[in-house]
Amino acid sequence: MNKKEMRSKLKAVLKKRRYEHSLGVCAEAVRMAELFGADTEKAHIAGLLHDCAKCLTEEQEKEVCKRYSYVPDLMTRLCHPVLHAPLGAVVAEHEYGVTDKEILDAIRYHTVARADMTLLDKIVYVADMTEPGREYDGAERLRSLAHKDIDEAFREALKQSLMHNIKKGSIIHPNSLDAWNSIISDENKRD
Asked: How high is the pLDDT of residue 85?
């Protein structure tokens, strides 16, 4: 499926606001890919499709899981708001024809992250939090970092996400903790 077909299909399945968010993430991911030396085509597709499973109802989620034999891990089931990311990777592969593992992983980890994030993973994660439609305390600081240093931007984005979830009293997915510990461990090795 080409990018025009992907956009058309995505527009048909997402709510208007979510579709506009996806276009914003796509544009921001491409901008950062150009700035930090990542593949712009991969950034385009991953940014565009990162929320392709976001507007599914619980019944539709179950149907997609069954159809493609996807079984979410326990923590993903307990952190239901993040299910759309790994499920999005499944949908991107089976319904949009994406076969590139790097793109699928960037979609899969755009909410909870993981240890040793790739450049594309970081770009999509940060782009999701910095696209122009996002307004929250800390957004401008994160946007500023996203124009200078992808590693610092990712560190700040992950920190903001962790703090947000802690303040809400939400479960923190182990991948997010692994990502944070990986960052801190790498920083300690450099000291």
From this structure: 97
Q: Are 49 and 37 in contact (CB under 8 A)?
A: no
C-alpha 184/C-alpha 191 separation (Å) is 11
Q: Is 130 exposed, middle or buried (0-12, 13-18, 19+ CB in 10 A)?
A: buried
Residue for token pair 């890919």: 33
Q: Over the Cα atoms of the chain, what is R_g?
A: 16
pTM of the model: 0.95
Specify burial of residue 86 (Cβ count, 10 A radius: 0-12, 13-18, 19+): buried
Domains of the chain with bracketed CATH: 3-190 (1.10.3210.10)
List the one residue out of 42, 40, 55, 41 whose CA is nearest residue 9. Answer: 55
What pLDDT sits at residue 189? 79
